[in-house]
Amino acid sequence: MPRQFTLPDLGEGLTEAEIVAVLVHEGQVIDEDAPLLEVETDKAQVEIPSPIGGRIEKIHVAPGQTVKVGAVLVTFADNGGPAPTTAPSPKTAPAMAAPAAARPARESRAAEGPVAATPATRRLARELGVDLRAVRGSGPGGRVLDTDVRAAATGARPAPAARPQPAPAAAESAPAGPAKPLATIGLEPPPLPRFEQWGPVERAPLSHLRRTIALRMTLSATLVPHVTHFDRADITELDAIIARNLEAARAHGVTLTLTAFLLKAAALALRAHPQFNASLDPAAGEMILKRYCHLGVAVATPRGLIVPVLRDVDGKPVLEIGRELAALAQRVRDGKATLDDLRGGTFTITNIGVLGGTAAIPIINYPEVAILAVARARQEAVVRQGQIVPRMMLPLTLTFDHRVADGADGARFATEIVSLLEAPERLLGLV
Amino acid sequence: MAKLNMVKALNLALLQEMERDPDVLVIGEDVGVDGGVFRVTEDLHRKFGSNRVVDSPLAEAGIIGASVGMALYGLKPVCEIQFSGFAFQCFHQIENHAARYRMRSQGRFGCQMVVRMPYGGGVRALEHHSESEEQFYSHIPGLKMVIPSGPRNARALLAAAIRDPDPVIFFEAKALYHAAKEDVPDEIETMEIGRAHVDRPGTDLTLVAYGAMLRVAREVALRLHEESGVEAEIVDLLTISPLDRDTLAASVRKTGRAVVVHEAPRSFGPGAEIAASIMEGAFLSLEAPVRRVTAHDVPFVGFARERANVPDVPRVLAACRETLAF
Questions:
Q1: A187 in a domain, yes or no?
Q2: What pLDDT is stored for residue A431 in this prediction?
Q3: B232 in the same domain as B152
Q4: pLDDT surpasses 60 at A81
Q5: CA separation (Å) from A200 to A193, A195, A196?
Q6: Confidence bin at A187 (pLDDT 50/70/90)
Q7: Are B54 and B155 in a shared domain?
Q8: Number of compact structural domains in chain A
């Protein structure tokens, strides 16, 4: 009996993946665990190993194609071997070892007519770009709730299905007050003009990563009231320390960079300003203050922007931060980052300095509430004690969510980062 | 400023409008010497005489028919029908004539008259004395349908109805006549017809009520707040037709949930129009179906069973809990 191998549940609310490469051909006999396909999800590019050994009878997918979880990828000819009981998790992505049973088949849901959801939930799904058919409802009778849609939108695992609630009429105790979602904004882009009327055009489909970036940025820019604060840090001293210790650090296998110091400065400043190391739960009307400090670093790759995450930055020395950062960035550029490398961030830093510019206003990496951008540091003529002196000045831009903090809070937080950068001994843990 | 019950407040409105405008007159059964079956017209006969406070024969069609004629000649009659259950005798005059003059005359003539009728249950009355039939009048184009909920707005709305250039059906809840006193200003006060009033602001649920049901809605809102911190917003319609759709939609766009309460029977009652209006104006905000708590689809039952028929606090509370838990 031929056996079919389907796209396993990739976890984390991921519902589809793009086939990057097919590493086998029809008729080929492969061993168990041999690389079968390379796929790219919203979060990472991963290799899917073969669940069994055997002869490949048919390949159902082609590079460039986007497939849903549960779609048939490959059919194996019957060779009498044991049938795969469960789909294996991709080897290079330990984070994807989620139970495949977590997601019901979509087809059965589609056959039953419209998804059960109130009009308010439908509007929320439309605004967040969530396909209701792909969301598992945790409400009464499998109804999709606002919380399910929000979980799907942020890529978080949906809440486990609530235990069946008693019929309201039979409920003796009064229900708790309903959640109070903040007002949302419904924005539909107007139709585009026919550009062909002015000249020839070309249309190119967006890559999977591009679509993810577009969705996340639209979500953030639409839902979050952004406010931006500008400042400059005098890093003359820090710059000198980096230059002096470059070789010594290299002997330890570490390339000392400004970004490592920035991460340390941000981590220490976040300790004093926890409201920037947080998320907002609009449905509950609560701030979620995170008692951990995992910092995202924007990395430009040929495929697009990716933000890997460094864990527990506040407790690590700068040298260690530099070491981990280099390794992480390399994994990202090679497309080998795991899901764990890419999620769980609490605050993001983006350093566009190598590319130039005098300042940039970043968009918050939702559901975080703040992001720090730095542009290129330059020698500038600065007045110190009545004298014009050359100093190395670093432009900083802090963008944060005005729902959780005010301009004064942002100014204090940015000032703290600046004063840390201007006193490198604090970053090195000397004082 | 005086503390008045609804009977006294309505009496004050009639007195002041009659003093202000010599074209205003009162007509109905026993409205003159006796001062009306509920004493709303008390003392008016003594003050204004038989030409302006007319005791009519026991003939509802005659009261309205004569009033339509007077209105066409420029007078402003305020008719009293003793109980709304008696009004079918004059329904022809109201629907076929009073409501149609604006349309018939291509907008040139109105039929400036008010028809006051006590309505509703809760006073242990006989058959034909407890009906709630606002849906008939609300359905007729050309009529306005007003139902106040307390002494102060009753006085202000009656004054506005008397000044309205078109016919206004004015329902007075018998259960409210002597129920509570309110401060009513001495100087003349009017309220805009067609405008609902947010009686209690809230964020979690919209309770739509009017007339005697406002008291029930207030009690329910209080209980919801006490038992679960739910903030119900109460919309007191005051005018049934024309319906203030904007206020309804704005409220439900905020709360996402609505329960409509009325004493009229359920099917094809005002609740159906209100629910449809909410659906049209706030569809994408709805977290739950709009629920109706109404009298049952039966002729108004005898007084021994009327408590089972008219919506009360436990029934409305149950509907609210279901809506909140949906």
A1: no
A2: 62
A3: no
A4: no
A5: 14, 8, 5
A6: low
A7: yes
A8: 3
State whether B233 and B147 are in the same domain.
no
Taking the C-alpha atoms of residue A348 and residue A341, their distance in angstroms, rounded to an integer, is 14
Domain presence at residue A138: yes
Residue B292 lies in a domain: yes
Contact residues on chain A for B231, CB-CB shorter than 8 A: 177
Q: Give the distance from residue B220's alpha carbon to the nearest chain A alpha carbon, in angstroms.
A: 13
User: Residues A285, A360: one domain?
Assistant: yes
* CATH number, domain containing residue B241: 3.40.50.920
Q: Across the interface, do B321 and A186 touch by the CB < 8 Å criterion?
A: no
CA distance A216 to B126: 67
Domain containing A148 equals: 106-160
B23-75 pLDDT per residue, tens: 999 999 999 999 999 999 999 999 999 999 999 999 999 999 999 999 999 99
In the stretch 162-201 of chain A, residues with CB closer than 8 A to chain B read: 165, 168-169, 171, 174-178, 180, 186
Q: Which residues of A touch B280 (CB under 8 A)?
A: none
| Closest approach of B260 to chain A, Cα-based (Å) | 18
> What value does the mean pLDDT of chain A take?
81
Is there a single domain that holds both residue A398 and residue A295? yes
- Better pLDDT: A137 or A187: A137
Q: What is the pLDDT of residues A160-183, one digit of tens each?
A: 444 333 333 333 333 334 434 433
Nearest CA in chain A to B232: A177
**What average pLDDT does the structure give for chain B?**
96
Q: Give the C-alpha distances (Å, rounded to integers) separating A88 from A10, A93, A256.
A: 10, 11, 40
Lowest-confidence region among A2-16, A375-389, B61-75, B248-262:
A2-16
DSSP string, B5-57: -HHHHHHHHHHHHHHH-TTEEEEETT-STT--TTSTTTTHHHHH-TTTEEE--
| B129 in active site | yes
Q: 0.90 cut: is pTM over it?
A: no
Whichever domain contains A406, its CATH number is 3.30.559.10
Residue in A closest to B202 by C-alpha: A180
ipTM above 0.90, yes or no: no
Are residues A126 and A258 both part of a single domain? no
Of A120, A169, A175, the CB nearest to B228: A175
CB A420 within 8 A of CB A261: no
pLDDT in tens, B280-318: 999 989 999 999 999 999 999 888 888 899 999 999 999
Facing residue for B321 by CB, picked from A121, A140, A168: A168
Same domain, B65 and B214: no
Q: Which domain holds residue B295?
A: 197-325
* Residue where a domain stops, chosen among A160, A175, A190: A160
Confidence grade of residue A398 (pLDDT, cut at 50, 70, 90): very high
Strands (E), A187-281: 226-234, 278-281
CA torsion through residues A63, A67, A70, A75, sign: negative
For residue A48, CA distances in Å to A45, A376, A387 come to: 10, 40, 63
Q: A96 and A113: one domain?
A: no
Looking at residue B58, its pLDDT comes to: 96
> Which among B283, B287, B325 is the nearest to A175, CB-wise?
B325
List the beta strands (DSSP E) in A324-416. Answer: 347-351, 370-374, 378-384, 387-401
Q: Does residue B86 sit in the same domain as residue B218?
A: no
Q: Are residues B75 and B212 located together in one domain of the fold? A: no
- Is B228 in contact with A169 (Cβ distance < 8 A)? no
Q: In which band, very low, low, confident or very high, does the pLDDT at A43 lie, cut at 50, 70 and 90? A: low
Is A9 in the same domain as A129?
Answer: no
B224: chain A residues, CB-CB within 8 Å: 174
Residue B191 lies in a domain: no
Residue B230: its chain A contacts at CB < 8 A? 177-178
